[in-house]
Amino acid sequence: MKKLLLLALLGVFAAPDMANAQAGMAEPPCVVYKTKKNYDRNVAVELSEDRTHIVSYPHPRDVYTGGTLCTPVRLARNFRLDRRGIGPHVAFLSVTYEEYSQWQETPSVEKLESLIIDRKPLKKMYRCPNPNPEHPEEALNTAIRKGKKGFEDLLK
């Protein structure tokens, strides 16, 4: 649990926040990743380091940012830009963000555990330098195509 808190404080789970950039505040680091299958629409939860149980999950109202669902942004070479705040121990549920957002209350951990469809979905995950806040996809795509210079491997 201490490691999870430390990772959260270090910004591993931070998603880009354009409001911070517009307000002149420092942006949290961004995270890009590749998965074994397409989980773009599936709700993400964070597992313990040994992947045996869920340690973090969103409230149904927390799957929106700026009025849109927190689905990842598609990037070059099948990478995704995280907008939800996932980390190296992510798992995906069988329920979509849209379905989950309709739930009136937060489900029990037991219910969420029963919905996990992949406990080890990641192929690659990097923390990367903050992109240009006005055109993050363009900057990230360029960096990905040029070899991910400055990206920190989070799956080592």
Order of helices and strands: HHEEEEEEEEHHEEHE
Instruction: Round the Cα radius of gyration to an integer and report it.
Output: 15 Å
- Give the termini distance in whole angstroms: 20 Å
Derived from helix and strand composition plus strand pairing, the structural class reads alpha+beta
| Total count of strands | 11
**What share of the residues lie within helices?**
10-25%
Beta content:
25-35%
Mean pLDDT: 84
Oligomer: single chain
Shape: globular
Low-confidence stretches: 1-23
Number of helices: 5
How many domains is the backbone divided into? 1
Query: Biggest sheet: strands, sense, closure?
Result: 5 strands, antiparallel
Please state how the strands of the largest beta sheet are arranged side by side: 6-7-1-10-11
Describe what this molecule looks like in 3D.
With 156 residues, the chain is an alpha+beta fold. Helix content is 22%, strand content 27%. The chain has one domain (2-153). A 5-stranded antiparallel β-sheet has the order 6-7-1-10-11, with no helix packed on it. The chain has a 4-stranded antiparallel β-sheet with strand order 3-2-8-9. Strands 4-5 form a two-stranded antiparallel sheet. The protein is globular. The relative contact order is 0.23.
